[in-house]
């Protein structure tokens, strides 16, 4: 038996206001005055001087504002990388992503593609990256995806939505400052928070479960339940705990896998552009057959926070469109195997999957 040997984020700073220390953290990593730091920042912060005035730029450093309305694509990553190569005097000293999962994934992918030849679509998969990425820092402003801690960056490419999973993907440094999540809209808070909850359920009920994943998964699940089901926490406590739940949820799937909800929501996202958090919620709501206890608790959380999920998003799809979605979803073997076992193809037939999608 060969066990996987995984890297982890080597440095993390935690605490409200820790964002103020960013300059001290990155300054020693500056290679030269010609090698800039590139800050990829969610454009929701564009006119927010409370945040932007604290981004420590010097010399040739650049802030690039990016919309998170669409999830990252391989084309977008390649364009950003080309632009940086053409317009900076030297290879950047570092890439710093400030935002939710979308921006964090972009920062990881750009840092990898600056040192690896070709197009990012060629690296979607497992362990295809050859050269170490440049120094990259993740600063989450929205909690739940676990992208700040994971070994993947999920990109939509021409053929599939799939991560660049590699030892070079994890951030070199993460800054966990829960104050940065202050203005997240309530619905988004719920959707991305539920991404974390669903990571826990899929990991804890999966066939790949082991004591490593279980310990992180149980911790994250407990945090999610206190955040989303009780009235015990202050706003600050809830923000800090969700940040840590996201971290633990991400760690839990590092050594296991996600499951049915993720496999299905990848299909929705590829065909309809449905975003990860809300897509997982739409799907998970109909998965009591696979996750009876998890779905029951999810519905209670939804009710407590008055969340109304969209309905009928697959109502008008053609057979061809269903097939595209079904093919994307069924191509994710490890997710299905984790959820349903080695013989998953006998359980989750294309017909069965179509029936499930038709409910959504
Ligand atoms: P997101 O980054 O797409 O952001 C959702 C919305 O919230 C956007 O409109 C954004 O502008 C807004 N937002 C973010 N921070 C805010 C703040 N502080 N105040 C106000 N608005 C704010 O959402 P997400 O759910 O964090 O990320 C989804 C992405 O993460 C997907 O692309 C998904 O594939 C990826 N993902 C990656 C991993 C991984 O391990 N790499 C895991 C899960 C999901
Ligand atoms: Zn997820």
Automatic annotation (TrEMBL):
Q: Where is the Fe-containing alcohol dehydrogenase-like C-terminal domain?
A: 191-299
Origin: domain of life:
Bacteria
Query: Which Pfam family would be a valid example here?
Result: Fe-ADH
CDD domains (UniProt xref): Fe-ADH_KdnB-like (cd08184)
Keywords per UniProt: Oxidoreductase
Q: Please report the stretch or stretches of sequence annotated as the Alcohol dehydrogenase iron-type/glycerol dehydrogenase GldA domain.
A: 11-177
Recorded hits in InterPro entries, A to Z, give:
ADH_Fe/GldA (IPR001670), ADH_Fe_C (IPR056798), Alcohol_dehydrogenase_Fe (IPR039697)
Q: Which intervals of the chain form a coiled coil?
A: none
Q: Write down what this protein is called.
A: Iron-containing alcohol dehydrogenase family protein
